[in-house]
C-alpha cells in the first residue's frame, strides 16, 4: 500500500529526507498540471443546451495550452554549478555528472505522467543545493488555473508534495523547492516563490540571482 504524502505547506514548509530514511537511491520529481485545452473541452462537454455547447466548443478550440518546463539548478560541494532543463537540451544524466536528469518534455500538460526529473541520492554528498523550478516556456497567461502539483517520490514510495498555489497575476515562473544540507541532514524546503516579467528579463537568470547561485546564462531554445 502506498504511503500517504507529506504535504509541504506555508505552516510546515520543510522535511528532512534523512528522518524519513531517504538517504540513497533515486528520488523522482514529478510536475503535473491541468491542460487548459482539456479543461475547456471538458467544460464544453458539460454545457447544457445546443447553443451553449456550440459556443463552449468554439471557445475551447481557441484555448491555447501553455508549455511548462521543469528544471533544477544545482550547486555542488566543490563550488561548480549547472542546470538541468529542456532548454538547450540540458537533460542531464543519472549515472554520472550531474546525477540529475529530466526524462521528458511535456509541452501541453496532456501527458498523464507529466514531466519527471530524477535525482541520484547515491551522490548526495556532492550536492550543496538543488533548486527545483518551473517556468512557462511558451503560451499566454500565467499559472492561475493550471492546478500545478509537484511530487517527490523515493524508491521506497515515500512521497512529498508541493502545490503551486496562490499564484499572483502574470506569474511566469516559480521556484518550487530548495534541497540542501542542514545540520548534517538533507532537507527539502518549500519555496513557491513566484516571478513575473517585471522581475527582469531572462527568468532563469532572475531566479539564479534571487538564490545567489552565481550562474552564467546564454540564450537558448529547445
From TrEMBL:
Entry superkingdom: Bacteria
Protein name: Tellurium resistance
